[in-house]
Amino acid sequence: MSPATLWIRRVFTDSHFFFALKVLLAMTSLLLPGWWLEQTPAAVTLTLGAMAGALSEVDQDPKGRLRHLLLSLICFFGAITLVTLLIDTPLVFGPLLVLSTLVLILMGAWGPGAGTLGFGTLLVSLYAMQGHADSPSFWYQPLLLTLGAAWYGLLSWLVLLIWPYKQVHEQLAQCYFALSRYLLEKSRFFDSPEEQHQHLRHQLAQLNIQLVSALETTKLILNRRIQGREKQEQELGRLLALYLLVQEMHERATSSHYSYQQLNRDLKQVDVLAGYQTLLVELGEACYRLGYAILTHNDYQHSKRISWELSALQDQLDYSHLKQHYPRSLLSPMKFLGRNMAHLHQALLRAEALTRRQPLSEAVSVELARPEPVPFWPKLKALLHPNSLLFRHGVRLSLCFALGYSLIASLELERGYWILLTILFVCQPSFSATRKRLVQRTLGTLGGIVAGIPLLYLFPSVGAQLVILLLCIFIFFTQVKVYYSWAVGFVTLFVLLAFNLQGGVTEPVFLPRLFDTLTGCALAFVAVWFIWPDWQRRHLPRLMADAMEANAHYLSAIARQFAQGRDDELDYRLPRKQAHLADNQLALAWQNIRVEPVPRYWLNLCFDIAYRNHALLSYLSTLGAHRRHSAPLQDEQIQQLVSRLLASARALRSADTLPVYPPLPTGALDADSDDEWLILSRQLLGHITLLVNDLYQLARGFQQQTPEKDAPGPGLG
């Protein structure tokens, strides 16, 4: 296959590019006939409906997608009709806008599909408000905006019928890409000085967020394909097997066999360290190639070099041992680290067979985790509570809309609904996310306006502006999940052109839109600062409790595997996943708290908790990666660790004072033992015990009600 063909296949299988291509095709098929028939304003109105439809699309199977499309069109038509009917009566329209905003945001509690539908309905309503002044008749906007969304939805549905598993391939490939980035970053431990290891651990925690998020999204997509199927298709079975494989590889990738700070001092062999690093790099690059093969529907070809490098690494370790005679406490973990890499190598060989599209010998029958359905009224009662993050966000956004609409009505800004559009995109559930969007939105809008002025003076004709409009929306959808500021710049130019062409004006008005953007950003910032601000510091006790409880359940599940035999059933995979999700929440809290106005004490405390919890999870993953029936494991120490973690979690949740327990004993190493697993397991349990003791002491930091502003956090010893 030629390089050009490979490039074209890669481009068309890229998820962002393909999505943008669908939107471009839908909008081009609407704009070109409209321009040809000299009905450009109507065609632009159709494209705004298509954009709302694209932004409210969710991944489902063809039947579910069609059902979601029909429900979306009904909601769009009803919402636009109400806007058209009531917008000229501010005393009625204002309260209805605030109440409907709250309801549409709260729809997110019923799943991503309902949340996306609520967002799309709100967005298309704002489009209708902005275009109301140019609407020639009552039914003009309800019909055209809804038809535009219907046209895009139908086109996307037909594409889904042709490629029903395209989204699964794309998301599964992202799992392997994320795993590749994790392994490549982890390889840096072997050649970095000790002072950089803390930073590397932090980077790994951030990469683990991406990896676990990709795994969780893939699981949701697979569940939608599996649910309700009596017979599993071969392609779906292969994709499910590849998903289970990346889960297993994730556990091995996140494992830590030895303290990296100590490793460089104890091993004292640059060649051996370089061997481990080279092997991790090769495995990381192999994961990327596997992800690329899944994405492009090609066969994966595993490198034969990895097998040779595994053998060479073992020979080098044995040779170094003969020269220096390493202690068993060092040699045993190094051997298990090599075996762990060998298991990753074997997993990639299994993936190679799975991508060849040969008939599976047997159907892949495995249960994926599904959330337990919660009855309507209990869910609604929990939702309508100040502690609900979604409720707080809904109230905050509704009040922000009330302020924005009051400003529009009092100043009689006929086209001032851009303020509400800005608020919708900038105001996020948390302060840190809003602050990030605030900067990105402002910079992107300024960039779009600055770039738009010379472009439109150079290309004043309607045809040229339509070409620029299409180019902008294509770039927006390719960049919105990658570089948000760039995407905002292009979508700003798109919407400026769209609203002006919608009204038959060929020269956009830039300064009013800039004023509206800055006003919307200011209102959103004030709202997240003063209206139920969602400071991460308040969530730290709950997040730490979740992490300690999840680690306890994961450790219990590992212990059961040692007692009953290794398997990868749901009762093991679910605690493992929950432990990683809880660890991710702590890492995200550390990211967010850094931009919040908090004393240094809380910054240090949050960092120490996230840092130690990720290290604890790494050692637990090592136990899980090497779990095997009949291997010796100290049951009494396991029970003590589980009990301490659960007791800490209960106290944190109930806000009770944590009792002053003595530190758990780490246990003594048997230096004379010849059992490599016994040596490694005792080392791991020793590390785990030290980290549990540290986390317990950090949990007691929440008992300090008035910490000094610059008090130092606990040390990292």
TrEMBL record:
<dbReference type="InterPro" id="IPR049453">
    <property type="entry name" value="Memb_transporter_dom"/>
</dbReference>
<dbReference type="InterPro" id="IPR032692">
    <property type="entry name" value="YccS_N"/>
</dbReference>
<comment type="similarity">
    <text>Belongs to the YccS/YhfK family.</text>
</comment>
<feature type="transmembrane region" description="Helical">
    <location>
        <begin position="139"/>
        <end position="163"/>
    </location>
</feature>
<feature type="transmembrane region" description="Helical">
    <location>
        <begin position="70"/>
        <end position="87"/>
    </location>
</feature>
<dbReference type="Pfam" id="PF12805">
    <property type="entry name" value="FUSC-like"/>
</dbReference>
<feature type="domain" description="Integral membrane bound transporter">
    <location>
        <begin position="406"/>
        <end position="526"/>
    </location>
</feature>
<feature type="transmembrane region" description="Helical">
    <location>
        <begin position="455"/>
        <end position="477"/>
    </location>
</feature>
<feature type="domain" description="Integral membrane protein YccS N-terminal">
    <location>
        <begin position="69"/>
        <end position="346"/>
    </location>
</feature>
<feature type="transmembrane region" description="Helical">
    <location>
        <begin position="513"/>
        <end position="532"/>
    </location>
</feature>
<feature type="transmembrane region" description="Helical">
    <location>
        <begin position="17"/>
        <end position="36"/>
    </location>
</feature>
<feature type="transmembrane region" description="Helical">
    <location>
        <begin position="483"/>
        <end position="501"/>
    </location>
</feature>
<keyword id="KW-0472">Membrane</keyword>
<keyword id="KW-1133">Transmembrane helix</keyword>
<keyword id="KW-1003">Cell membrane</keyword>
<protein>
    <submittedName>
        <fullName>YccS family putative transporter</fullName>
    </submittedName>
</protein>
<keyword id="KW-0812">Transmembrane</keyword>
<dbReference type="InterPro" id="IPR010020">
    <property type="entry name" value="Integral_membrane_YCCS_YHJK"/>
</dbReference>
<dbReference type="InterPro" id="IPR010019">
    <property type="entry name" value="Integral_membrane_YccS"/>
</dbReference>
<dbReference type="Pfam" id="PF13515">
    <property type="entry name" value="FUSC_2"/>
</dbReference>
